[in-house]
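Revision sheet: structure tokens.
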Amino acid sequence: MASRTALHERIVAAEGARAVEVGIDLRRLNEPDSPVFNRAENTGPFFAAMGAVFAALYFGGWIWALAVAGTALILMATGLQYLLMLRLRRRALAYALSDPDCWQRLWNMGGLTLRLPSRDDTLVDSPEGDWADFAARHLGRRR
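Predicted:
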């Protein structure tokens, strides 16, 4: 069997060629013990919204503060969450594909899945599944 580094390189090459789908479990990776967690990214919007509400209260009164709070709540519950999760997914994928040890760390957390496109029977879920066996069986030799 090939080394872990060689198998990781197969995954990186296959992901770049869209020959394999790397799934990211955002809920598991958006935790403080995750290497891709960013506390400022998660708490910054709340503190910015609270600052805007207090500024509106000071300069415009309680009606403006209520309007700003409602707007901030809607933004944080809809579009902003989507953007934060998109950034987390990109960061997690870049981290996982950067190094075999980084990949293994996210795999052990249960934050990754592997499968061939349009083939659900090839799904390998972390941390129970064996990503190295998946790479050896399905991704062949790197050319």
